[in-house]
Amino acid sequence: MNPLVSVVLPTHNRSQYIKKAIESVLNQTFENFELIIVDDMSTDQTPQIIFDFAKKDSRVKVVRNNENLGMVKSLNKAIRQAKGIYIARIDDDDCWFDSKKLEKQLNFLESNKDYVLVGGGVIRVDGDGKEIVKHILPEKDEDIRRMILLDNTFVHSSVMFRKNIYDDIGGYDENLPYTEDWDLWMKFGKKGKMYNFQDYFV
Known about the structure:
The protein is α/β, with parallel strands linked by helices. About 35% of the residues lie in helices and about 25% in strands. The longest helix is centred in the first third of the chain and has 11 residues, at about 45-55.
């Protein structure tokens, strides 16, 4: 049976943080997912860490690039291989704060077919994990649209979106290495509604 959700995690030399990121995905209450980790030619202990997880949990799939492609190309590569109806994102130096994140977002998208993209709030921390600031983003579609031309209204590691819409709009623009997410959200906005949970997800 194919997973309902594909979680995509590109990584490069993040041995200090990658374990916590992976554990936060595997500890989700919703379990019917695959975790696709793209190792972008890491030279530290990152490959060993992720392969150790893959040995223990069949949901973890590891893709290793033969050359350093960068995050955006790695993202598109991973999503091309994804089997899920929905795509969720997490960065290698982030972790999901809410163990019900996938469950909440999936239930919302399953119940609201006119929505194509959902996100949530973020708690920013320093290198020692100490809280710096909390951010909750605009909740409703109309508020997101009012703001999105001025500022990125989604935390990349918080989102879940429909893979068929991603395919339809051509995925992440590989010519935009720093604003690829913001660009993608605006393309999603042409296809349907958007929503931010007022919960801290990341």
